[in-house]
Amino acid sequence: MITPLSKPLYVMAKPAGSHCNLACSYCYYLEKADRLYADESRHIMTDELLEQFVRQYIESQTTPDVLFTWHGGETFMRPLSFYRRVVQLQQYYAQGRRIDNCIQTNGTLVTPDWCRFLHDEGWLVGVSIDGPQEWHDTYRRTRSGKPSFREVVRGIEMMNRFGIEWNAMAVVNNLVVEDPIRFYEFFRDQLGCRFLQFAPIVERVMKDERGKELLALPPFSEDEEAQSSGQSESKASPPISGGVGGGLGLTPFSITPDAWGSFLCTLFDEWVRNDVGEMFVQIFDSTLANWMGVPPGLCTLAPDCGHAGVIEYNGDLYSCDHFVFPPFRLGNIKHRTIYELMNSPRQQAFAKIKRERLPRQCRQCDVLFACHGECPKNRFATTVDGEPGLNYLCRGYHRFFTHVRPYMDYMKNLLDQQKAPALVMDAIRRGEIQ
């Protein structure tokens, strides 16, 4: 069958919507319940919609392997019976395909029953934890203001006892970014983590008509709103240059471009000298993939967007997890299939934003192949020439990709010779790479 998709189609599912037992200061999803679904009383995925989603999602795939990703909010707010039903439906609709599942959690609700299920079904677990206790507990607290670190570690230790495969997902905030070595050593030496993902926090805020502070819509939202309403033109928000303007401000936990660049370079130097092949850091692996000219596995460093949507508890499908706002709502799977929505003109237009709206400064950059302008949600700065659409973290990323170039070149050469990238550590010790 001829299909427009040459790679897997991903839709991240939110079975409990934004419902969560924590109230993290930097969470970009907590406000969705009031901002988008205030009129709905129960923010949970029904059994009927679950079956529609599982069936449609499997049918939309053009490859024999199907990956389901369960996200939140907090996924463990749904009972185990919900996920047992997930497995039953997947088995029923698989039609010979191989089904895998990964689930993201804050780790505080892990129980032996959960562990037995996750182990027996072979689910990969992502655990949100931001490093040492004082950093983690600064922003990741319960709704009553209590710290969550000890409960997260308890959950990790329990999963370790049951032999469950898990990886860590950390948010790099204004505290973490200042001490990358301590951050890295916590995961490697104290937690025993071998698969580490982390993401920089960059959030802008605005005030609504009531004076309530809300996260600002991502760039290009006005254009999408105009497109959906049939308007040909729209007035975009003022771009940001150097600082934050246009009535929008960066949250206090957001990081600066220079701090991000320093964080990445320092952490990379520790990893590339000691842990290649032993500690797997997503952004480093994805950078090497771009050096090799293969898909990076990290959407922010891919050349295009558009193949990874998100479905809310009620069936609403959005273009991306960071674009769950009205202008980027594609429709509802009760009325149109996942395949139709993810291949719709609106999603195809969204997919092109990343590549087509790169400013000239990016198009002329010597590390564009490694960065691709990073995530469009962060493209609210201006270039040195005043052109809008530059990624706010550009300066930090450029420093990082320039810094790692000799090491990436060397590891690419090793892979081209079918040798292990870990041999780069021997080359560094011999002084072959400066």
Structure at a glance:
This protein is an alpha/beta fold.
Report on the structure:
The chain is of the alpha/beta class and 434 residues long. Helix content is 38%, strand content 15%. It contains 16 helices and 15 strands. The chain has a ten-stranded mixed β-sheet. A three-stranded antiparallel β-sheet has the order 8-7-9, with no helix packed on it. The chain has a two-stranded antiparallel sheet with strand order 14-15. Strand 3, helix 4 (112-121) and strand 4 form a beta-alpha-beta unit. Helix 9 (257-274) runs parallel beside helix 15 (394-416) and helix 10 crosses helix 15. The longest helix has 23 residues, at 394-416. The chain is globular. The protein starts with 9 loop residues before the first strand and ends in a 5-residue tail after the last helix. 40% of the residues are buried.
The secondary structure category is: alpha/beta
The beta-strand count equals 15
Q: Helicity range of the residues?
A: 25-40%
Distance between the termini: 51 Å
Counting DSSP H or I runs of 4 or more residues, the number of helices is 16
Give, in spatial order, the strands making up the sheet with the most strands: 10-6-5-4-3-2-1-11-12-13
Tell me which oligomeric state these chains represent. Answer: single chain
Mean pLDDT: 91
Uncertain stretches of 5 or more adjacent residues: 1-6, 228-247
Dominant shape = globular
Please tell me how large the radius of gyration is. 22 Å
In what range is the share of β-strand residues? 5-15%
User: What profile does the largest beta sheet have?
Assistant: 10 strands, mixed
